């Protein structure tokens, strides 16, 4: 199969779909890999490194889209990219379609087969291709929150871990999944006062065991959320419903109870955000202020640490990517990879995506 890796064009996205070691694996399996010149610059991988790994360097993204049978990316295709996709072509990347009807329509119109990293599952019911970026984003959320708390960045001038005689910042993490757990680890490590809210008692028990009393675990009710939000210095939105839009849990009215200069980091922004006042931002202008509260809502947070993120992502995506290259759509006999299928031949094939967008859903066995 001819596999294409275009350079990411989303604003300030420095990750790359295939790192050189992954290219070598595809080539070893008999595939031709087309890599756009400069695609690896953001992770410090030169064109020569890719050439030595067996890639064919291509100057134009247009040529890659024309020649490749499978496109491997990191972020969702931008408008000029989805217009270049074609019937029968496989797209393998993050999509986050639920809050993005324009992209969804573009993929439907293209006729391509679009497989989303974020909905591929494993035998434990986890999301293995989303997990590495959840880990990165969770850890980054505390770094950016600590910076945003600084006075010159609009924060209240508070040190996350405090000092002897001065209390640390109070951090509330909404959601006890992969993002929330990694955020809590970083916050605890910095010495913050941390609470985690979740609606799974079993998960709260696991977190209680994991942190050995170093965090407060709370069942997430409206009352508990309102109380914790009002008392917090930092709020981390770490809510995920696979494939679907994130619920808006922190309302505009709740902001009135939050002290000016507090910080809200919405890691769920790729799925529409879990704060009512969230809107997607970029690394160039990551924050804005609503009612005195600093909002950080960068839609590609892991892009800030592109090298770490790209290698972590490739570790997770390589196996399924090779299966698709080796077997084509026959690889979808794997039920976990099938869960990643979001669009095929002009149809939405993921139920959660379809319900979020209010469109018809067609299981794969009806559109194959």
Domains (count): 2
Into which percentage range does the β-strand content fall? 15-25%
Extended strand count: 15
Strand-pairing-aware structural class: alpha/beta
Radius of gyration from CA coordinates: 21 Å
Mean pLDDT: 96
Shape: globular
Described by strand count, sense and barrel closure, the largest sheet is: 8 strands, mixed
Give the termini separation: 20 Å
CATH superfamily grouping of the largest domain: NAD(P)-binding Rossmann-like Domain
Biggest sheet strand line-up: 3-2-1-4-5-6-14-15
CATH architecture of the largest domain: 3-Layer(aba) Sandwich
**How many individual helices?**
13
Provide the CATH topology of the largest domain. Answer: Rossmann fold
Q: Low-confidence segments, ≥5 residues, pLDDT <50?
A: none
H/E series, N to C? EHEHEHEHEHEHEHEHEHEEEEHHEEHH
Helix percent band: 25-40%
**CATH class category label of the largest domain:** Alpha Beta
Descriptive account of the structure:
Helices cover 34% and strands 17% of the residues. The longest helix is centred in the last third of the chain and has 22 residues, at 306-327. The chain has 13 helices and 15 strands. It starts with a strand and ends with a helix. The radius of gyration is 21 Å and the shape is globular. It folds into two domains: 2-120 and 307-367, Rossmann fold, CATH 3.40.50.720; 131-299, Rossmann fold, CATH 3.40.50.720. It is an alpha/beta fold and 368 residues long.
């Amino acid at each position: 199969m001819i596999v294409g890796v275009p350079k990411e064009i989303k604003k300030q996205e420095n990750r790359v779909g295939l790192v050189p070691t992954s290219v070598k694996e595809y080539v070893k399996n008999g595939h031709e890999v087309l890599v756009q010149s400069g695609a690896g610059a953001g992770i410090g991988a030169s064109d020569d490194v890719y050439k030595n790994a067996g890639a064919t360097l291509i100057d134009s993204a247009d040529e890659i889209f024309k020649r490749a049978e499978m496109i491997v990316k990191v972020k969702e295709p931008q408008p000029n990219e989805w217009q270049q996709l074609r019937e029968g072509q496989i797209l393998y990347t993050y999509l986050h379609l639920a809050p993005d009807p324009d992209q969804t329509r573009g993929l439907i119109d293209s006729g391509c087969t679009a497989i989303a990293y974020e909905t591929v599952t494993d035998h434990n019911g986890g999301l293995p291709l989303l997990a590495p970026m959840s880990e990165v984003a969770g850890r980054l959320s505390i770094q950016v929150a600590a910076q945003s708390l600084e006075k010159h960045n609009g924060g209240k001038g508070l040190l996350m871990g405090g000092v002897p005689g001065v209390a640390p910042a109070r951090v509330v993490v909404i959601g006890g999944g992969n993002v929330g757990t990694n955020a809590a680890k970083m916050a605890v490590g910095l010495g913050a006062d941390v609470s985690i809210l979740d609606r799974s008692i079993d998960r709260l028990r696991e977190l209680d065991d994991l942190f050995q009393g170093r965090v407060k675990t709370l069942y997430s009710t409206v009352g508990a959320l309102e109380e914790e939000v009002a008392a917090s210095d930092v709020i981390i939105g770490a809510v995920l419903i696979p494939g679907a839009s994130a619920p808006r849990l922190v309302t505009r009215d709740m902001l009135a109870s939050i002290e000016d200069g507090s910080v809200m980091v919405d890691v769920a922004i790729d799925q529409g955000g879990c704060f009512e006042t969230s809107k997607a931002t970029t690394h160039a202008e990551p924050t804005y202020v609503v009612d005195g509260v600093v909002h950080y809502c960068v839609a590609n947070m892991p892009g800030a640490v592109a090298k770490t993120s790209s290698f972590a992502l490739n570790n997770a995506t390589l196996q399924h990517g090779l299966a698709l290259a080796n077997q084509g759509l026959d690889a979808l006999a794997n039920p976990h990879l099938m869960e990643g299928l979001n669009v095929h031949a002009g149809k939405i094939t993921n139920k959660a995506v379809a319900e979020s967008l209010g469109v018809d859903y067609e299981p794969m066995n009806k559109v194959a």
